Amino acid sequence: MSITVNGRAVDPPADPRVSMLDFLREHLHLTGSKKGCNQGACGACTVLVDGERVLSCLSLAVQYDGRKVTTVEGLAGEGGLHPLQRAFIEHDGFQCGYCTPGQICAGVAMAGEIARGVPSLVTADLGAEQIALTREEVQERMSGNLCRCGAYNGIVEAITEYAAAEQPRAQEMAA
Is the pLDDT of residue 24 over 70? Predict the structure, then answer.
């Protein structure tokens, strides 16, 4: 059994009751993901599992045997920050920074959802081949990630910019 975390194979914890969040923070010392509410209500613990967003406080690490987990630390590449991390800086999408790792992971997954044509509650045309990247669409899709400082305008602007740039790339890859 092993879990791939940020490109590195690691053994799951011996205790099957350890949450993915505690495994990342306490066993692997990856402290980007935060323990906010520990109930799945704030999104501060959001990580990517095979590209999909997961609330790591609500899942057990052993559930992810054979899967790829990416934390905010694993988003940056050799060339520097991930494009969404740069967009957060450019658009002042953070204040205290506590929710930022979860916001960024959720934003990356959200951009993928839009590029794949996955509708949300506010998607106007469920049959459309392309989903319009409106402010309301981004707000709805990010509604599970709370920012206690109220940096929402910068967060939405950063994610909108990133998702708009990713949409054509994702469609090219699918073709």
Answer: yes
